[in-house]
Amino acid sequence: MSASKKKSNTVASDEGALESTLSFEQAFSELENIVAQMESGQMPLEASLEAYKRGNSLLTFCQQSLADVEQQVKILNERQQLVTFNENND
């Protein structure tokens, strides 16, 4: 397997791990901390790269979480009742 395939598999598994271990608030807080550390300019290059990768995974997780909640609100508005969203709902 090529290095690029290994990396993409790792990123995908990292995102899956985020879903099962972090809430939106925890992920967003960690993302804010990463941004603050990176903006300070005190991180070595390798640490910055790893922080960027982690931040990207956290950002993707947060964006998906927000999209899921937005879909729930749309369902609530259409039906006048809140129902749990899953990707199979129309």
Written account of the structure:
By secondary structure, the chain is an all-alpha fold. The chain is 79% helix and 0% strand. The protein contains three helices and no strands. The termini are far apart.
| Rg computed from alpha carbons, rounded to a whole number of angstroms | 17 Å
Contiguous low-pLDDT stretches (5 residues minimum) are 1-12
SSE order: HHH
Ends apart, CA distance between termini? 38 Å
Number of strands: 0
The structure class reads mainly alpha
User: Which band does the percent of strand residues land in?
Assistant: under 5%
The number of helices is 3
Helix % is: over 70%
Average pLDDT:
80
Largest sheet: none
**Coarse morphology:** elongated
Features:
3 helices; single chain; disordered N terminus; mainly alpha; 90 residues
